[in-house]
Amino acid sequence: MLGLIVTIIIVGLIAGLLARLIVPGKQDLSLPMTIVIGIVGSFVGGFLGYLLFHKDADDGFLQPAGIIGSLIGAIIVLLIWIRVGGRRSITH
Fold first, then answer.
1. Helix 67-85, helix 2-22: angle, nearest 10
2. Would you write out the chain's pLDDT as a tens digit for each of its 92 residues?
């Protein structure tokens, strides 16, 4: 169980960092938030993989993806995060 948690965190970190490198612009995200974006991206990638290829049907549609699916999902999640975060008004 501990190995699974460590693996999820490492894949989340890699996917989150790669997504931040690929997506242009400045992202004001901490390292833990980068990991969260990568982990959520992994599940988004797994969901999209299920929708497109109907894999993992026996285990349900919410599956963690491999590193490629995680990266694609993390990019999607990061773009949504930037878009939603850009709507906030900043007052001084």
1. 60
2. 788 788 888 888 899 999 999 998 888 888 899 999 999 998 888 888 778 876 655 555 455 667 788 889 999 999 999 888 755 555 55
Cα 65 from Cα 39, distance rounded (Å): 10
The letter for the amino acid at 82 is I
Sequential DSSP letters for 42-73: HHHHHHHHHHHH--STTT-S-----HHHHHHH
Q: Which of 81, 89, 90, 87 is nearest to 30 (CA)?
A: 81
- Whether residue 37 is contained in a domain is answered as yes
What span, in angstroms and rounded, lies between the C-alpha atoms of 38 and 27? 14
- What is the domain range of residue 41? 2-21+31-84
Q: Is residue 64 part of a domain?
A: yes
